Amino acid sequence: MKIRYLSCLLIPAACATVSGPLADFEPVEATTVLDAPAARTAGADAGRIEHGRYLVGLLGCESCHTDGALLGTPRMDRQLAGSDVGIAFSNPLQQRRPGIVYPANLTPDMKTGIGAWSEREIITAIRTGVGRDGRRHLPVMPWPGYQKLSDADAAAIAAYLRALPPVQHAVPENVRPGERARAPYVHFGVYQSRR
Ligand code: HEC
User: Fold this and answer.
1) Mutational pocket test of ligand 1: of 135, 141, 185, the residue with most ligand atoms within 8 Å of the beta carbon
2) Burial letters 103-116, b for 16+ CB under 10 A, else e
3) Pocket test residue of 58, 71, 127, 138 for ligand 1, highest count of atoms within 8 A of CB
4) Residue 86: phi, psi to the nearest 5?
5) Residue 193: inside a domain, yes or no?
6) pLDDT at position 169 over 80
7) Full residue range of the structural domain in which residue 144 is found
8) Over 60: is that where the pLDDT of 152 sits?
9) Cα(101) to centroid of ligand 1, in Å?
């Protein structure tokens, strides 16, 4: 008690008591959940890659592309390596079997990630939602919000993704509306209680 009293005098924040609805919550370490992972930075590209890491953290790519993140429990050993939990892109309240996409593995693994993609292809996917195979629109991927990234920023993001340690992890196949989903999914939507 005495020690606590002393620390109150020295560091007032140390003795702040929380009351009300937050009383039962412990503060979480803010750097653990959605921090972009460190890349293998070397040579002259280090500054560009570090800028890419900063942007990826800022733009929240992790919140979808890291397994578990959609459920609030990100797998830190698989950061940006794709999600086994999908996201419905058609409305499950109207369709019993909605279409579902699984956020892709963005690490440079050749088979399961984007290791075979060129920088240009990565930039095009981020800014226009057109995948490598020329498929229009990556559903759910929030590319309209990334359309105005400058060339330098988009290139920094691509450079950062290409410098990540490759993680071998195949995400489940996308599901077309009407098909049965074999892996779990979430749905972003607006809900209203009846009463
Ligand atoms: C709201 C969730 C969400 C966020 C946030 C998000 N993405 Fe995606 N992204 C997806 C989904 C879902 C797909 C797969 C779409 C599909 O398969 O049609 C995808 C696909 C991609 C692809 C294509 C990869 C491939 O193999 O097809 C790239 C590249 C990509 N995202 C990069 C990013 C980057 C970089 C950011 C952050 C700037 C980001 N994404 C943020 C959901 C998201």
Assistant:
1) 141
2) bbbbbbbeebbbee
3) 138
4) -95, 180
5) no
6) yes
7) 2-186
8) yes
9) 10
